[in-house]
Amino acid sequence: MKKRQIFLLSLLAVILCACQTVKKPDQDIVILFENDVHCAIDGYTKFGALKQEMLSQTPYVAVVSAGDFVQGAALGSITRGESIIKIMNAVGYDVTTIGNHEFDYGVDQMKHLMSELKADVVCCNFADLNDKQFFPSYVIKQFGDVKVAFVGATTPTTFTSSTPTFFEDASGKLIYSFHADDCFKHIEKAAKEARSEGADYVIVLSHLGDDTEIDNSVDLIRSTTGIDAVLDGHQHHIINQTVSNKSGKPIHLASTGTAFLRMGKLTINTNGEISVDLIRSDSYKNKSEEVAQVINDIEAQLEDRINAVVGHTEVPLTMFKFNDRETRRGETNLADLLADAFRDQTGADVGMLNGGGIRNQIDAGPITFGEIYSVMPFNNSVCMVECTGQQILDAIEMGVSLAPEENGSFMQVSGLRYSYDPSIPTSVKYDINNLFIGIGDTRRVTSVEVENKETGEWEPLDVNKTYTVGGQSYILQNKGAEGVFRTAKKVACAECNGRTDVQAVIDYLQKIGRITAKQYGKPQQRITVVKH
Predict the structure, then answer these.
(1) Pick the residue with more confidence: 519 or 532?
(2) Is there a single domain that holds both residue 31 and residue 128?
(3) CB contact at 8 A, 527 and 331
(4) Strand pairing of 176-177 and 127-128?
(5) Has residue 61 been placed in a domain?
(6) Cα distance between residue 475 and residue 496, in whole Å
(7) Residue 89 near residue 65 (C-beta atoms within 8 A)
(8) Could you tell me which of 19, 254, 266 has the C-alpha nearest to residue 141?
(9) Both 264 and 392 in a single domain?
(10) Contact (CB, 8 A) for 246 and 238
(11) Percent of the chain as helix, strand, coil, to the nearest 5
(12) Distances (CA, A) of 435 to 98, 326, 360, 384, 481
């Protein structure tokens, strides 16, 4: 009798599992997606056209974003993201999540921009310290009888990859959280809650990145269930693959790269099956006239300011090398120019900036205001601090800790030169918020020299001596670059006084005149990699 009961219970379980079939839509559901557009506004005309094309084939179309859209070029920065929101509204987005760069104009401006966006904004892991969320964790969209939930999440590294002080009060106390210690739990909880409300499919709009050191999208899939697809951003990778979840089920993971290199199309077909296509934007020729007109109107309003000529260069000023962002792991002539500008314009002993703050390069010829803004689109001010030689040494060590891999905190310098050996194991230490806290017993930096401003001679860095460092507020005052300068002393600087980094560079260009090959034709060998 007991065996018969067990058999019947087992049979019932099989029958119940068989009955739990995936609900199938009566027509294809198409989810158009993008990530990390970073103000590449021309792509929106094609994205808008693709939406209209899909609507001619099925009434079930949604347009979504995995974040990082309001920052990246002059048009976005000058208007503090307002212009990008207008363009996205013209396209007609349905759901977005926030990326780390949505915070680049401050938390209040981020909230304002998201309130202006005519789309549902979702993010399950951004909250205050009382765990009060600023956005819903998810939203459910209905397509006929089928319900699709969109869960949003942004990278916990936002705390340092945006501006750390934006997430603190006046006393420096942290007042916001990205749930760095339990991010995945919040995402899985949101997915389960959406299922309990009747969602047939759950799609995560993830600004986590597929290979971020902590809380990446691959690990998210591997450690959770209840998710059908992850549309990812943050790392600018082009991805179209499946990853097995905690139960062994293959889950779609996709990312469109950056700046509309691809336009994503996720389809839930009438068999209930999910497929993903990445459409090359350069091969897609249709454009939305309505979206193009909005862009034209915005550009016309800003044209004179953006196109104003502020300098001239005989040579290209570069950030890339073989398509890699060389400013994040090595020296370039553009990085040298910017560091020189900050040193000169503040009168500091040393000029420094993080390579991740350099976002574009400049072609030979006239240099416009818009080009300088596209190089440094974060609206930082220029400032000066006092710190010890030890702090400078630690900042450089922290910057080379990932070499030869890219590191946004890699230090570009002026009045300083250093060498490092990437074969030496790094011992740089960080806290849970990825803030620098110290260095162990190994160092990659093998030598550092400082230029004596009076004699022009190079002298060994004195770790006990006090130096002045000129640069951007992001790393010197606002705890950027992992907060390595957060204990440095702010110095009154008559040349600063709220002046932006863009204006400081423009003033330096006008001071030195035409940039020649002799001045900045190539990197000036300030950074040397020890080779074996």
Answers:
(1) 519
(2) yes
(3) yes
(4) antiparallel
(5) yes
(6) 15
(7) no
(8) 266
(9) no
(10) no
(11) 30, 25, 40
(12) 22, 23, 26, 21, 8
Cβ proximity of 473 and 381 under 8 Å? yes
In 3D space, the residue among 34, 45, 113 whose CA is nearest the CA of residue 296 turns out to be 45
80-109 pLDDT, tens digit each:
999 999 999 999 999 999 999 999 898 999
Does the predicted TM-score (pTM) go above 0.85? no
376 and 288 assigned to the same domain: no
Range(s) of the domain holding residue 106: 22-298
**Is residue 403 a contact partner of residue 410, using CB atoms and an 8 Å limit?**
yes
Backbone φ/ψ region at 365: left (φ over 0), alpha (ψ -120 to 50), beta: left
CA atoms of 486 and 15, how far apart (whole Å): 62
Q: Give residue for tokens 């020890």.
A: 530
The number of distinct structural domains making up the chain is 2
46 closest CA partner among 57, 56, 58, 34: 34
For 180, the token pair is 């760095």
Residue pair 262/280 in contact by the 8 Å Cβ criterion: yes
23-53 per-position pLDDT tens digit: 899 999 999 999 999 999 999 999 999 999 9
